[in-house]
Write a structure and sequence with these properties.
Structural class: mainly alpha
Order of helices and strands: HHEEHEEHHHHHHHHH
Radius of gyration: 21 Å
CATH superfamily of the largest domain: Ammonium transporter AmtB like domains
Strand content: under 5%
Helix content: 55-70%
Number of strands: 4
Largest sheet: 2 strands, antiparallel
């Protein structure tokens, strides 16, 4: 069977292992995820906080995006996806050389063996170059750090944040990423950034301490329309987040994108409905929080569950966090003491 000219190895930039469709989708998905952070969360953070914190909050996200990229290519990527140094950590090294970046992508320690020594799961080797994988995984690292920024908005000095970003990326994110993706303990072709983020965000956020009581009781956004614009970018960008996780433009990617949007929409509607039933009117902030809880909820299984299950997950993500925020939080002294403004999981 003849191979179409567009897929034949006719130049050094088109080796025989390269699948142009997979490569195009991976770069597109990475761009979508990048847009979630820049400008999505930059706009969202600047708009959702009080006016006095707007510039500082936006700059925290902007700085993190740039700082994570440089740290990622200097040492971070190979600590998270390179050759094993420890059971939970890879060997740090630069990801800048042409010989490294133009070769076929692979995750060296992703091979899993049965008890008898035979291969159970072969090494992950997508049909595109390392450069595409390095950039795609950078956007995951960046948005995780920027989501962490959401937990300390208005509570952290910008100089402290500038020092914190590279340290947290290297000593926390890379450990979780290697353990889940890089081959330390498990490997699966769907996004697992959520557990990495949750396990890493909560400790630093809680150590910063709660906001002043006056800020917790009244926390109006300074620009609702821009807040919605940022939230919209976050929603649409999440399609790249979950759709790019299978590392190919395949059926899993299609299901993941559809389920992502179904769950987010369901969660938003459930949250809004609960606001109307119990408070007599819908809330724009509540709708945004419902959207975010839906996106986070579907992420670990976006390409694995059926679409009816995505609706069920959306109902749960739109109701359980609502109860924890609107009911339990107001009645629990412990929750109020440990109050964390993590807008992506709807906890105030």
């Amino acid at each position: 069977m003849a191979i179409a000219g567009a897929y034949s190895a006719i130049a050094p930039a088109v080796p025989e292992w390269l699948n142009k469709g997979d490569n195009a989708w991976q770069l597109t998905a990475a761009t979508f995820v990048g847009l979630q952070s820049m400008p999505g969360l930059v706009i969202l953070y600047a708009s959702i906080v009080k006016k006095k914190w707007a510039v500082n909050s936006a700059f925290m996200a902007l700085y993190a995006f740039a700082a994570v990229l440089i740290c990622w290519v200097l040492v971070g990527y190979r600590m998270a996806f390179g050759d094993q140094l420890l059971p939970f950590w890879g060997k740090g090294a630069p990801s800048l050389g042409q010989k490294f970046l133009v070769n076929r992508a692979k995750v060296p320690k992703s091979t899993h063996f049965r008890d008898d020594g035979t291969v159970e799961t072969p090494m992950v080797e997508p049909f595109y170059p390392m450069a595409s994988l390095v950039y795609f995984q950078f956007t995951f690292a960046a948005i995780t750090l920027i989501l962490l920024a959401g937990s300390v908005l208005g509570r952290m000095n910008i100089k402290a944040w500038m020092a914190f970003v590279p340290l947290w990326l290297i000593f926390s994110y890379t450990v979780g990423a290697f353990s889940l993706w890089g081959g330390g303990f498990s490997i699966i072709g769907v996004s697992l950034t959520t557990p990495v983020a949750m396990s890493s965000i909560s400790p630093p956020a809680s150590r910063v301490g709660p906001r002043l009581k006056s800020d917790r009781e009244r926390f109006p956004p300074n620009n609702v329309l821009l807040m919605l614009a940022g939230a919209g970018m976050l929603w649409m960008g999440w399609s790249g987040f979950n759709g790019g996780a299978p590392y190919a433009a395949n059926i899993d990617a299609s299901i993941a994108v559809l389920n992502t949007n179904i769950c987010a929409a369901t969660s938003l509607l459930v949250w809004t409905s609960l606001d109307v039933v119990f408070f007599g009117k819908p809330s724009v902030i509540g709708a945004v929080q419902g959207m975010m809880t839906g996106l986070v909820c579907i992420t670990p299984g976006a390409g694995l569950v059926q679409s009816w299950a995505a609706i069920v997950m959306g109902m749960l993500s739109g109701s359980i966090p609502w109860v924890s925020m609107m009911v339990l939080h107001k009645k629990s002294a412990l929750l109020q003491k440990a109050s964390i403004h993590m807008i992506h999981i709807g906890v105030l």
